[in-house]
Amino acid sequence: MEADLRCNVVQCRKALNNEDIIVEICSRALSFWTYQTTQEACFQEIMYKSLEEKYTQLEKQVQGIMRDAQVEITTLTKDMELEKRKSHDLAEQLQEKGRQFSKLQSMYDKLKRRSLVPTIQQTINNTTTGIGNIGIGTRQSGVPIQRLYGDNLMSNNNRTQTWNSGNGQVVFGAYKDGSLTDSVSKLIPENLQKNIQEQLQFSGIKGKLGEIRLFYGIGGSEDIPKKIAVVGLGTNKNNNEEEFQALERARKAAAIGVRSLREIGAKNIGVDVMTHEHGAAEGATLGLYNFDSLKSEKNRKSPVNIEPIGVSLEESKSSIKEELTWNTGLIYAIAQNNARKLAETPANHMTPTHFVEEIKSLLKDISNVEVIVHDKEWVIENGMNSFLSVAKGSNEPLKFLEIHYKGGEEGKKPLALVGKGITFDSGGISLKPSAKMAEMKGDMGGAAAVSSAFYGIAKLGLPINVVATIPLCENMPSGRAIKPGDVVKAMNGKSIEIDNTDAEGRLILADALYYTSSTFKPHSLIDIATLTGAIFISLGEIYSAVFTNSKKLWRKLSNAGKITNDPFWRMPLNEGYIKSLKKSTVADLVNIGERGGGSCIAAIFLKEFVSGLTMTTEGENNNEKGEEKGEGSISIDKELGDADKEKKIRYAHIDMAGVMITSQDSGYDVKGMTGRPTRSIIEFARNISKDQDFQ
After folding, report:
1. How far apart are alpha carbons 13 and 511 in whole angstroms?
2. Compositional bias (Basic and acidic residues) spans (predicted)?
3. How many whole angstroms separate alpha carbon 335 and alpha carbon 89?
């Protein structure tokens, strides 16, 4: 076998040495490869043609389906349009049938009630013996019942009305147990009360504070309102409820009720006085505010009038100075709405000149008021270089507004109010970031609050003397503007190095505080300013901060904030903070200190310009017997001495930067500039007007 194998190998070697054999083999191999390649190409061509035919068929099928779908869509569209027209025609027919039914129902009710039920007015006459003028009374000339929308501040209307004063649209209050308020229960028929209570039960309302239901035509008579908003007041009023709690419940409920009726087109609304007539008037007035005077006519909301249910306006006016009534509530709220409007108005429409004209117009018809407007020349003559340094960067001329109310005894020391009036704050050379810079139109929120509170005080006719001063200017960058490192001399002779031009509010207030305290020598001096962003970090949007040297002044402010639910929190006015303001090598003070305690440093800076203050190292404990712990309770060594004991001027700085603006509508709060703390200052003034020892 090995021999055969060797033989084959030898033969193969011989064959490989034969060129003809090799050529033959290669030729056959090439022919086979060519054949195989040709066959494969033919197969691929056949497959491609087959796929192409299938694709063509599918394309034709898809096109056919699309054509059919388009035809179907067109048909359906035509059918829909036809159905819409039919639906519209049916709706019109139903509306017409509804109108006819309403007319028939009204006629039936009239015929039925003529024989079975006394009229509403008869019911009132039968149930109010000895009560006097229950209804809403007679409007007196000069009583500030207002058109409560936008810029419309007041409207007087001499007419007597029944409890159904809203021309078919009213707001009632209801408690958790389903009962209505006393003010409403005394006036409306028993059958209507039962009807409302049944509807409340059916609708699932629990009577929680702010919960609301709207009812349409539930009375079945033209004498009964067609639209009734019932708002929850929470648990029933009891003898242990404090006044501030009753006030706040009425505010929230009234605001929610009138807003709901406004949304469905109400223009005249009767408002139940609920748990407190002052609070109801405040809530309704504040809740209906909106700023739309710069919009085109078609985009403005219609004004809304409100009338009280369950109180006589004549009686309300007669006790206006002694207690909180419907009319005091209107005045408080009108004042805050005015502050809102001033602060919300864009800076090109609310320059210092415009601001002055607004206040002159606001106060022109109030007795015992004097308005004085000072210009740049007067400021220069009085050495108010700190104020002037801020104003000179703008093309808008500065104004120094001085207003007097003489409601008290002649010669008696006044209450003094000072408001920061930066009508637009760009930051100056120390320019602010562009984000939210537009909100700096509201940097005159202090001026808005002071001037509007002054209006409220004068409108109430309080028996006190008041002086208010407001420095007004813009803080703008320009070739004339102050620069970081500049030094100016204030009216009291102290030099100030401008370390940051965006700390301008304290510069204009410095001269205003010295002028006011040294010229008028008030018993109490309060400045209000959107002074520091740091106070927002400290207190957020709830409290305005108070820095004061007087426990009596603090207590009065704290109590006022409690009554109005526009509260204050006491912060330290401590001499230790002055150190960071005395680091300058070229001036007595710098206008900005270290990062920490920025609001406290700003307050102590302002204190340096109040005439009649002294510093002591005697501590002041705010938690002495008789004062509650908690709100604003601070005890720090080296506090300013007690002004009440030392017979010095009482001074308070209110930093309201944190409460300048609110981001949403809620209760009687309206998105935008808040106008705070206007009502609290009015209430503070009303309170001290009854305290001769304080004045």
Report:
1. 123
2. 622-638
3. 51
